[in-house]
Amino acid sequence: MTDHVTIVGAGPAGSMLSILLARQGLSVTMYESRPDMRTSDISAGRSINLALATRGIEALSEVGVMSEVEEILIPMMGRLIHDDGGGISMQLYGNRPHEYINSVSRTALTSILLDAAEATGRVEINFDMRCQGVDFEGGVLHFTGSTSGEVSHVPFTTVFGTDGSASAVRDALLEVNDGSVVLEPLVHGYKELTMPTGSDGGSQIEREALHIWPRRDFMLIALPDLEGSFTVTLFLANEGPVDSFEYLASGGDVPGFFEEHFADFAPLVPDLAEQFTTHPHGHLATVRTTGWTHDSRAVILGDASHGVVPFHGQGMNAAFESCIVLDACMRDYPGDWATAFAEFEKGRKPDTDAIADMAVANYVEMSSSVVDERYQLKRTVALELDRLWPEQFTPRYAMVMFQTIPYAEVQRRAALQGEVLEQLTGGLTDIDEVDWAAAEKMVAELDFNQASDTGA
Ligand SMILES: Cc1cc2nc3c(=O)[nH]c(=O)nc-3n(C[C@H](O)[C@H](O)[C@H](O)COP(=O)(O)OP(=O)(O)OC[C@H]3O[C@@H](n4cnc5c(N)ncnc54)[C@H](O)[C@@H]3O)c2cc1C
Mind listing the pLDDT tens digit for each residue in 314-359? Predict the structure, then answer.
């Protein structure tokens, strides 16, 4: 056992974890490949702003930063759908006043965590140092200065890998623990654009909403920024003869694409074509790893072990929750980190696999189902069931975003509830046609505990 530990990667997961480890009385040295975002004008990297929901909020409260974080949140009460005829409609996220999600700047949020980490007096952060590999036998981490190119070798006893989806710690770990990683790339990529404020300095579209322009094979979404601008993300096929990043990057008509598919959006971004040409095209993948640990020497978490596609807005929320789960495992097995880390993987992996599946499924929901009449009917009925029998029925979205039921359990309950919704709405077109007596009986028969005991 050591009282000094090393973290590689000072993103959301690493910075939160460093606070938790410091609170265990450990002294922490953290290495980050990028410059300090609090003092240098670097791009936020992937996604300028993120949706923060209950799981993330609980973790941020646990490390004592939530009052500061609240200052930088913008509530998003629901999805504001922009249909292709120019119409808009709001789909509230839940029935209750607290059932909304929040838009937050990745840079501002991570900066709060880094400040809190340093304020513990036990965390030292080294920026501009990229981990190149881990020698477990020799107990040495290899780094290269991101700007200087200088090579250094740093001794370590236990390393926590929070270095994101292309994790160098993970690569080294899997060589010694017989684990494996599968990257499941999505055929869609993304590009971020900025919708500026209007001439009056205010937002050009409703501020307290997550905007979606669903177009089935692709979609635009927009999340509000504190300044009144919006961060807009286009999700589109990477390749293809038309309507793809490949097509648009190789001479396709960019203004024409936006005017054809997003006619109400295009005029709101005067330099749309220029932004489109100069902003990077990002790729998306699910990261599924087996073998998150190596004895008491190493453990990986966050996107390094369980990266998900962004369509449920849960990657960072899940990474924060993983930090809390790992911290609890370490407290449960004081002095025996090998067991603590192994228990962490055993308990957490079914949940991260479940949110990975639900995040992929949510792409279809966001990009096409939201305008599908049958989906809308099921969603309205689900909200009504939740309103009438809240103890028995909670829509899947609410379980993921507003509760902390383990993700695997959410997935299981949602499948059972999905069958109820299917039966209740089959052949119907309007909520007034629902047989509420049958609904009451079906909902009462939803016995999650019993199903769990029998392994069903
Ligand atoms: C377009 C998009 C939208 C998203 N929207 C949401 C959302 O709305 N809500 C949500 O919860 N999640 C969202 N996510 C997911 C979220 O961004 C990630 O799940 C989250 O950032 C994971 O945090 P992390 O700390 O594990 O990894 P990262 O954020 O990737 O942080 C890893 C850190 O390690 C550093 N690093 C990398 N390699 C090395 C190395 N070799 N040596 C040293 N340092 C290294 C990196 O610079 C970085 O600072 C989104 C992702 C994308 C791509």
Answer: 999 999 999 999 999 999 999 999 999 999 999 999 999 999 999 9
Given 331, 362, 393, the domain boundary residue is: 362
Based on the domain organization, do 26 and 130 belong to the same domain?
yes
Q: Is 168 in the pocket of ligand 1 (CB under 6 A)?
A: yes
pLDDT tens-digit readout, 273-295: 999 999 999 999 999 999 999 99
Instruction: Taking each helix axis as running N to C, give the angle between helix 54-62 and helix 315-332, from 0 to 180 degrees, rounded to the nearest 10.
Output: 40
User: Is 299 a pocket residue for ligand 1 (Cβ < 6 Å)?
Assistant: no
135 shares a domain with 11 = yes
Tokens encoding 147: 């700007």
Gap from CA of 164 to ligand 1 centroid (Å): 5
- The answer, yes or no, to whether any atom of ligand 1 lies below 6 A from the CB of 46, is yes
> What is the domain count for the chain?
3
Query: Could you tell me if the CB of 163 is within 6 A of ligand 1?
Result: yes
Residue 434's domain comprises 372-453
Give the tens place of pLDDT for each residue, 100-126: 999 999 999 999 999 999 999 999 999
Residue 445 CB: number of other CB atoms within 10 A?
Answer: 11
Q: What predicted TM-score, i.e. pTM, was given to this entire model?
A: 0.96
From CA 368, how far away is CA 376, in angstroms rounded? 11
Q: How many helices (H) and strands (E) does the chain have?
A: 16, 19
